[in-house]
Each structure stands twice: as C-alpha cells, then as structure tokens.
Amino acid sequence: MALTGLDIFKKLPKTNCGECGVPTCMAFAMKLASRQAEIDACPYVSDDVKAELSEASAPPVRKVTIGAGDYSFNIGEETVLFRHEKTFVNPAVFGVVIEDSADEATIVAKAKAAQGIEFERIEQKLRPHVVGVKAVSGSAEKFAEVVDKVVANTRLPLVLMAEDAAVLKGAVEKVKANRPLIYAADANNFSALAALAKEAGLPLAVKGATLEELADVSDKVTAAGVKDIVLAPPADGAAESLKDLVQIRRAALKQKFKPFGFPTITFTDGGDADMALATAGIQMMKYGGLIMLNELDPARIMPLVVLGQNIYTDPQKPMQMSQGIYPIGDPKEDSPVMITTNFSLTYFIVSGEIEASRVPTWLLVMDVEGLSVLTAWAAGKFVPEKIAQFIGKSEIAGKVKHQNLVIPGYVAQISGELEEEMQGWKITVGPREAGDLPHYLKSWSPN
Fold first, then answer.
1. CA distances from 52 to 2, 11, 62, 143, 189 (A)
2. Domain map of the chain by residue range?
3. Whole-prediction pTM value?
C-alpha cells in the first residue's frame, strides 16, 4: 500500500530547512506522497529511509532511459490512465526496424531517413527517436556489421534485436556507450540476455507468448538484477494490441502489479502501410511507449507525430505559439497587417487561410496565455489597452508604410476604443470566420 503524506513525514528529519526547495518537511512529505518530488532532494534523510521512501514514492511505471547524449529519451514514469487526470509524463516515441538481411542500400537509406525526418510544429521539433536492427541472418558477424553501418548513418539510439545472446554480444560491446535497448528476453533465453544486459548496464525488453508468461519473464529478469525493463506485449494486430496495452497499464497503476510496472515496446508488423499507421496511432494513444514501424514515409509519419503532440501535452494548458510577427508569403511594406491570439489552433486556422488567399500578410500573434480570441477578450487579455501596448512594442510600424490594423470580426466592438488607444492607426474589422479571409484579403486596401 502506498504511504500517505503523514506516514512519510514521520520518517523525515523534521528540520524544516527548506534545502529541498519546499518550506517544511510536511509540505515535502505531501509532495513525495503525490509523486511530485523525489526523496533525493532531502540532504539529511538516512540511507535506510531513503531506500524505503524511494520505493514508496516511485511512479508505478518505471522510467527507462534509452540512448545517450542529445538523442536520449525516456519512456514510462506514468501515474495515470487518462491524460485529464494528470499530464502524461514521457511522450510515446517511434522508430524503424532494419533487418540485417537487407541490402546495403536499403540499410543506409532507412538509417538516413530516420535521422533526416523532422517536422516543426508549434515550435517543437517532431521526429523519429530510434532505429531497431533485427538479426534475421543468425550471424553475429553480419549483425555487428549492419549495426556499424546504421551507426555510421544515424545518431539515433538503437534497439538491438536478437534472441541469441551470442549474436548480440559483439554489437552490444561496440555500442553500449550509447545505451541501446536489448530486445528481447523470453522464457527460453532470459538468463543469458539478463546477464548480458546486467553486465553492459543496459535496458532489456522482455516478451512472452501470453500476458501471464510476460509477467513471469519480467519477474525472472528483475530477480536476475536487471532494473530497466521494457515490456513487449504478445498480441499482434490493432485490437489485440490495444487490449494487452490497456491490461498492462491498468495492472501497473490500479493493482500495483510490479511485473507490469514498466514501459512498453510495440510493433506494427503485418498489413498494409495504412493499417500499420492506424495501429501505431492506437498504440500511441493507449499505451505504447516505444512504437516500431517497418517503414518511415514522411507523408504517413506527419499525422502520427501530430497525434503524439496532441496527446502528450498538458490538457490544462493550451498549446501556444510565441508572441511576435509572423510574415506569411513574403509580405512587403504595403501588405495587410492582421492580429490574432497565440492559441495554436487559432494560429493554424488563420495562417492557413491567409496562405490559401495567396495575399502576403503580416500576422501579429499576441500572447494571451493560449486563449482563443473571444475567450481572451472576455478574460480581459485581448483588449484595446493591451493590444495597443503589444503593437507599440512589436516594431511592425517599421515594416509597413501604412497604419491599418485588421482585427478579428468577433471583437468588432473594441475597434473604436482601440483607435483611440492607437493614435494614427486605422482599425479595420475583419471577417468573423477564418474561412472568409481569402475573399476579404483579396479586396483589402490600406486606405
């Protein structure tokens, strides 16, 4: 049973020193109980208590780090089933599988694609995170050779995939400093693979033909001294995969079932490319940690990374753009100047319609803490006084020769007061709906 804040407080030194970053030991105990702090932050707690409280305050799903340096990433560490309860902690990531039996051109092309694909959306860089190398040939030398080729063409972390420890060993020795994930221990090979992972200090994936067998292998690998484990659910196909992932997460969070208290790795084998993408999307939503694909087509990957970005954000904090001037279509000094809020959905809708109009435009994005236009106006954040202050600091006056500002039609009522606040500027009321912007901009005039 999890310790309460009062249980934890009784074990703390009660110095109220504040060195943990919290004013009192009681407040620190409450943070530990809610898993918002770590016991290592207390400099005076004894080692015995630290060991006891570390386990009690640890998240039910262990955090596992894969990779080293700038391209490393974490999976796991989750504490809730639903994102509205509390933000999911570590985003699901995805990668591509390369078989060591493939020809050199295919190996190099896949590795380079994994390294080169990158999308920027709402000021975040979205990309594949990992490359899996699968031993199909059965040769340790061939496997190590292909791993070398992959490493030469990507800096992304690796998943080394083989069932034979002898095949894995040479490759593990070469790249262990980059902290790859070893895949996968099962009921037959767990002893050898656990020894290899423990010796190299690397995370180890475990798998089983059933969830019961998966739990058994997880227990045995843990008993062998491997702490960083990644679970590979047994099911194939979208429906069965979803069922297994939900059962694993519920068992870890609701039943505190320790063999399932680890992040997961899933695959999208079989079916056509569209089905693989749909399966990956399902696994990303519930509850894949590391999702492996057979191909990385940028056109298909784009929806997947956007889905992940939408799921793994704080539902209580709107996605926001940075405040500033966004030139769309190479605007000039006589181009329209429009203003909107920094709610990301508002920005994408408005900017998309401006692009569709093919009228070069200066779009001013004002920081209103991620609220939409009407909500920001109602909250007193998108009002004449603050808009005027923003325009004055934005330096837009130095980019255009006119002084005509187009405001959203939904806040037409502020136009008169805004003109008074912005001496010399003409305030024009734009359309209420973004879909009317192309027609509006084509007939716009600064006079």
1. 11, 10, 16, 42, 32
2. 5-57, 64-311, 324-442
3. 0.78
